[in-house]
């Protein structure tokens, strides 16, 4: 069992106010024994947001509160290369690794380079994968993470209000398809982004598996906290993966 948190930040404010909210939320999460906290996508305001400039701030928070932090995701400018990146920070403040967004969306394609790898990280003995926003649209992404042994998926997102319903369907479907809980924090901003952050687990009813909403945020700034059993779905996930007919799927790898 692991306790996780999704931070739904009000991304319409200035950076210092947002950082103050992050500090308060992470302190509260630590006091409630949360082990992994995840921020949303594109939470950094301004004309040229750069996640690299926020890493020391997040590393210090992780170390001070002895909590693992997933940075959300944002543009990261490094050595003339720009990516949309999520950084995994351990409870001692060190960087465990990074995940680049593979499926860029909209104006991201004009600025950033797409990633090509799907990395699985070990956080206190739990294997996690990160599907950044639009990555969740593609069923292959979460299936790859499942095949690589992931037990939890974090999906930092920035979804407009009109997209909330299909986004929630994607989260539930990907969780159900792969028997993997998904934690997906979204930004909030008046009018355009209504939040709706979601933590979806799975329940077993007579060996029939259902997606289960463990926590859902309404409008405004919120922190969702849930306890997730990462072991109860192992058997069902293995059954699902071993029942695939790989020999019939060759069309999936053709352009």
Task: Give the key terms.
single chain, 255 residues, alpha/beta, Nitrilase/N-carbamoyl-D-aminoacid amidohydrolase, seven-stranded mixed beta sheet, six-stranded mixed beta sheet, 15 strands, 25% helix, globular
Residue share in helix: 25-40%
Mean pLDDT: 96
Structural class: alpha/beta
Major sheet attributes = 7 strands, mixed
Q: Give the distance, in angstroms, between the N- and C-terminal Cα atoms.
A: 41 Å
Instruction: Work out the number of β strands.
Output: 15
Question: What oligomeric arrangement do these chains adopt?
Answer: single chain
Choose one word for the global shape: globular
The CATH architecture comes to 4-Layer Sandwich
* CATH H-level homologous superfamily name: Carbon-nitrogen hydrolase
Total of helices: 6
Poorly predicted runs? none
Helices and strands, in order, run as EHEHEEEEHEEHEHEEEEEEH
Description of the structure:
It is a single chain. This protein has 255 residues and is α/β, with parallel strands linked by helices. It has a single domain (2-253), classed as Carbon-nitrogen hydrolase (Nitrilase/N-carbamoyl-D-aminoacid amidohydrolase, 4-Layer Sandwich). It contains six helices and 15 strands. It has helices spanning 15-31, 55-65, 108-111, 139-147, 164-178, 234-242, and strands spanning 2-8, 36-38, 68-70, 74-78, 81-89, 95-100, 120-123, 126-130, 152-154, 182-184, 188-189, 193-194, 198-205, 208-216, 222-228. Strands 1, 2, 3, 4, 5, 6 and 15 form a seven-stranded mixed β-sheet that branches. The model has no long low-confidence stretch (mean pLDDT 96).
